[in-house]
Design goal:
GO terms for molecular function: antioxidant activity; isomerase activity; oxidoreductase activity. InterPro entries: AhpC/TSA, Thioredoxin-like_sf, Thioredoxin_domain, Thioredoxin_ResA/DsbE_sf. This is Thiol-disulfide isomerase/thioredoxin. It holds the Pfam family AhpC-TSA. This protein is an alpha/beta fold. The chain has a single domain (about 15-150), classed as Glutaredoxin (3-Layer(aba) Sandwich), CATH 3.40.30.10. It contains 5 helices and 6 strands, in the order βαβαβαβαββα. Strands 1-4-3-2-5-6 form a 6-stranded mixed β-sheet, with helices on one face. β5 (about 115) and β6 (about 125-130) form a beta hairpin. The mean pLDDT is about 95.
Length: about 150
């Protein structure tokens, strides 16, 4: 069962290893956050990385957190995950979740999957699969516009 909309962001606890920097729910408070689940064996995930990277550059007010979710024993090779992170230039915090602790906390079953939280830490949108990034655009605009209105 997928995490319900308007649910509070779960803790990012139990991660096997962090790459780039470690982050947690407390550090993300007060900022809109996009959590994306991916796997090294997922071609759709790799295809989405350039667009995700562009989105990160175009929306500096949005925090990004990647969660590597292994789909098989082969996907648990930490060195391969790190090499993929470097190859695709994923510079935001990346959690390697080999024991599926974060995956379970988010009740996530799919890659790629995207969870958008507003600055209060409430889930506003989730999408998965081939069209997940395109489905994210309007909810992202809405959340960012709400944030701008709060600040004015």
């Amino acid at each position: 069962m997928a995490m319900r909309l308007r649910t509070e962001m779960p803790e990012l606890a139990g991660v096997t290893e962090w790459v780039n920097s470690e982050t947690g729910k407390e550090a993300l408070n007060g900022k809109p956050v996009l959590v994306h689940f991916w796997s090294i064996s997922c071609y759709l995930c790799k295809e989405s990385f350039p667009e995700l990277k562009k989105m990160r550059e175009e929306t500096p007010e949005l925090e990004f957190v990647g969660i590597h979710m292994p789909r098989s024993e082969k996907d648990t090779n930490i060195n391969e995950v790190k090499a993929t992170i470097e190859q695709y230039g994923l510079q935001h915090p990346q959690a390697i979740d080999n024991e599926h602790k974060v995956v379970d906390a988010f009740e996530n079953e799919f890659v790629p999957a995207f969870y958008l939280f507003d600055s209060t830490g409430v889930l506003r949108h989730r999408s998965a699969g081939e069209k997940a990034l395109s489905l994210l655009k309007k909810p992202l605009e809405r959340v960012l516009n709400e944030e701008k209105e709060k600040q004015s």
